[in-house]
Amino acid sequence: MSIKIRVRGKVRGGIAEIKALMKHPMESGRRINKKTGKPYPPKFIQNVEVAVNGTKAVDAQWSGAVSTNPYMAVKVKANKGDEVVINVVDNTGEKGSAKFKLK
Amino acid sequence: MKRRSFLKGTLATGAAVVAVNAGLLTPATVLADWNKAAFDAKKVDDAIKAVFGTATTAESGDLVLKAPEIAENGAVTPVTVDASKMSGVEAIAILADKNPTPLVCVYNFSGPALGYVSTRIKMGETMNVIAIAKAGGKLYKAEQQVKVTIGGCGG
Description:
By secondary structure, chain A is an all-beta fold. Chain A has one domain (4-101): Immunoglobulin-like (Sandwich). Chain A is 0% helix and 54% strand. Chain A has strands spanning 4-12, 15-23, 45-52, 55-62, 71-77, 83-90, 95-101. In chain A, strands 4-3-6-7 form a 4-stranded antiparallel beta sheet, with no helix packed on it. In chain A, a hairpin with a 2-residue loop joins strand 3 and strand 4 (55-62). The model of chain A has no long low-confidence stretch (mean pLDDT 93). Helix content of chain B is 25%, strand content 38%. By secondary structure, chain B is of the alpha+beta class. Chain B is built from 4 helices and 8 strands, in the order ααααββββββββ. Chain B is globular. In chain B, strand 4 and strand 5 (103-109) form a beta hairpin. Chain B has helices at 2-21, 27-30, 36-40, 44-52; strands at residues 64-66, 70-73, 77-82, 89-96, 103-109, 113-121, 127-135, 138-150. At the A-B interface, strand 3, strand 4 and strand 5 of A face helix 1, strand 5 and strand 6 of B.
């Protein structure tokens, strides 16, 4: 299993806004399962990395307080055709990756 | 609380060991840089200190925090932090002051990145959203109250 990521990005005036939508439960470990009275085990994305043409641009750390199916937008200086790579990993070691070219 | 962090720890190491044994990952990538002390901090100032080393902040008109005044559903509160007018933004952190652990996320910028982040966060009740930006070795803070009518945590 890997984490699914949808990415989009458009360049305007030398700046690209990169938008990513991930499919992930983002379970913080605080929500209680009403049937058992025990909390659901935590499962949330901890690290997100965005690279443009192989250069690291954004390196984020998340807690379980980022919403379920997280949305993220960042801005980078870039040109049309630049390659953007997004890598994520959650607290259980599950990974996800997405690669696309800027329009 | 102790039990919870114990469980968290064993789960994380368990997964890491499996992954390493399978030869899929190196330990360095599994235990990627994640500031546990900061994310476990219960107070806003402690969390900021754990991330940036100090909790002394200044105000700046160039640090813009966009959040709704009223969030109908606290589980998906859209928050945008725009510090792209500031030069040399190194990092942005977003905190929700009354969440059990206030620190929501930390973004570090390098190379071609601008100081801009837009995301959605969970909020348990009406509280302040705090954005901290680090630029030129200094911390800047912006704060806004968001009224939450349905909580996003617990349940």
